[in-house]
Design a protein that fits this description.
346 residues; mainly alpha; 0% strand
């Protein structure tokens, strides 16, 4: 019910955004822009777009460093499944499914996997923050977008710093010893038996056990913070992810007859990415369109063309993610059938 309620809220916000946008544009001009789109550019976009997923999978594999034996295809499989669900569930609910599916498939804690996904988002935010900050400061001078960069930087730098500090404190031997003593005391129940009856004591003990397990699992997921080399490698792997995304957007915009360069595309991409954090309809419908109109307006691209670019871009993304997801579903089923046949022969 909670997911359903969030979906309805996201859908309402998306409809509001689309309604406001359509009131301020001429839909016929947007349709005309789509008609003039050179669809050959879509074929050039496909390998670049999928390359971004390859780099995402490599980065995720690096973050889950203690399980290096897991195949890259397993990371890609889970990525496509999670992103597919993101197209239909609000607030990036597909990431929860990705953590559940990957954890179950590879026999890992779901909380640990979720922590690694949180890290992915933080590194994405940091790279996009730096792109927007540098471009808004030195290339496309804009106080408005500089302000967006600063606000995003406070959020993502702050989160990164907090996780780093928690990780360091958690690894402190003295703190760990005290923490373990506290857990043992509560598990023995002697500590809380003085204040609560037996049944309530059991309930409190179980709740505390679950919280403790979740905390330990989460800290295992951010193990990367204990290795500066891994932090640097993860950061460096995030750069090609967004370069591929920027190149995909560059080709999309070129298909509509506009040329803003790779730096311009990265500038637009970072603005759209931060604005799309606002809850919206399926695949971020609504806020994404608004982000494109604001960002591309900086390059004097009309609202109608910007709206058309955003719609084609989203449709392209949804179709390719769906195809990627379908590929791994079919591959997985074929592999299961092969294993069944081998077992039958044995």
């Amino acid at each position: 019910m909670k997911i359903f309620d969030k979906k309805i809220i996201g859908l309402i916000i998306g409809v509001i955004f689309i309604t406001l946008i359509l009131k301020n544009i001429d839909p016929h001009k947007s349709i005309e822009a789509v008609k003039n789109f050179k669809f050959m550019y879509l074929f050039l976009m496909i390998p670049v777009y999928y390359s971004a997923f390859l780099f995402r999978a490599l980065r995720w594999k690096l973050i889950i460093s203690e399980k290096t034996g897991i195949k890259l295809s397993s990371f890609l499989n889970s990525l496509f499944r999670g992103w597919f669900i993101n197209n239909f569930v609000p607030a990036r609910g597909g990431e929860l499914y990705r953590a559940h599916y990957f954890g179950k498939k590879e026999s890992l804690s779901r909380v640990t996997i979720l922590a690694s996904i949180v890290l992915e988002r933080i590194f994405d935010g940091l790279v996009l923050f730096l792109i927007l900050l540098l471009l808004a400061s030195f290339v496309f001078s804009s106080k408005k977008f500089f302000g967006v960069a600063v606000a995003a930087g406070i959020v993502f730098m702050g989160t990164f710093s907090v996780l780093l500090l928690i990780s360091k404190f958690y690894k402190n031997t003295f703190i760990q010893e005290k923490f373990n003593i506290l857990i043992l005391k509560i598990k023995e129940k002697n500590f809380i038996k003085k204040f609560l009856n037996e049944k309530i004591c059991e309930i409190v003990s179980k709740i505390f056990h679950k919280i403790t397990y979740a905390l330990i699992s989460f800290m295992n997921g951010v193990e990367i913070f204990n290795s500066p080399v891994l932090i640097l490698k993860t950061f460096l792997l995030t750069i090609p992810v967004w370069f591929c995304e920027g190149l995909t957007l560059l080709l999309l915009i070129k298909g509509f007859g506009y040329s803003i360069g790779i730096l311009g595309s990265l500038f637009v991409l970072s603005i759209v990415a931060f604005i799309s954090l606002i809850p919206g309809g399926p695949a971020g419908l609504g806020p994404v369109q608004w982000g494109y109109i604001i960002a591309l307006g900086f390059f004097n691209i009309s609202r109608e063309a910007s709206f058309a670019i955003s719609i084609i871009g989203q449709l392209f993304s949804i179709i390719l993610i769906s195809l990627g997801c379908l590929f791994f579903i079919i591959t997985e089923r074929l592999n299961l059938k092969e294993k069944e046949n081998i077992n039958l022969e044995d």
